[in-house]
């Protein structure tokens, strides 16, 4: 399900169109919807990271939700560049609507150092993203 066709269509703070798709910035997470057949490269990832820093600042960890409504190419090894540049995410949710898409998540998991969870629907991914933020806030209030 696309963001624009969901109950979340009026809840995002900002929408940015990039050359390979759409980015939806919510208060505590980002949802990407990449175009059919696009090639998601490290160069594109850097642009998304810069948009996130512009929106949230560099000190805020957010959850990135890849809403894979289309099939596109990604090089899982590009995650190594992400960590080499010292970028961080609170979590990574991948919403895959096909068996092949769900199996690809297993390969990506090998290269990520972030909490990664696969979902077959957008609602569950967003609930998980919000639960990560809630648990972090609870932990912060319990520290002395």
Q: What does it look like?
A:
With 144 residues, the protein is an alpha/beta fold. The protein has a single domain (3-142), classed as STAS domain (Transcription Regulator spoIIAA), CATH 3.30.750. Helices cover 39% and strands 25% of the residues. The protein has four helices and eight strands, in the order E-E-E-E-H-E-E-H-E-H-E-H. Strands 1-2-3-5-7-8 form a six-stranded mixed beta sheet, sandwiched between helices. Strands 4-6 form a two-stranded parallel sheet. A hairpin with a 2-residue loop joins strand 1 (14-18) and strand 2. Residues 138-144 have low confidence and may be disordered. This is SpoIIAA-like.
Keywords summarizing the entry:
single chain; 144 residues; alpha/beta; Transcription Regulator spoIIAA; six-stranded mixed sheet; two-stranded parallel ribbon; 4 helices; 8 strands; 39% helix; globular; disordered C terminus
Share in β-strands: 25-35%
Number of domains: 1
Radius of gyration equals 15 Å
Q: What's the CATH H-level superfamily name?
A: STAS domain
Q: What's the overall geometry?
A: globular
Oligomer: single chain
Instruction: Name the strands of the widest sheet in spatial order.
Output: 1-2-3-5-7-8
Termini gap: 42 Å
Low-confidence stretches: 138-144
Protein name: SpoIIAA-like
């Amino acid at each position: 399900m696309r963001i624009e066709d969901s109950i979340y269509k009026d809840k995002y703070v900002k929408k940015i169109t990039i050359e390979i798709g759409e980015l939806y910035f919510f208060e505590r997470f980002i949802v990407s919807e990449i175009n059919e057949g696009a090639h998601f490269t490290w160069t594109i990832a850097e642009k998304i990271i810069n948009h996130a820093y512009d929106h949230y600042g560099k000190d805020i960890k957010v959850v990135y939700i890849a809403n894979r409504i289309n099939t596109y190419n990604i090089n899982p090894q590009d995650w190594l560049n992400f960590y080499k540049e010292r970028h961080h995410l609170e979590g990574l949710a991948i919403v895959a609507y096909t068996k092949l898409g769900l199996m690809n998540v297993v390969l990506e998991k090998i290269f990520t150092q972030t909490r990664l969870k696969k979902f077959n629907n957008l609602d569950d991914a967003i609930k998980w993203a919000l639960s990560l933020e809630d648990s972090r806030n609870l932990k912060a209030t319990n520290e002395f």
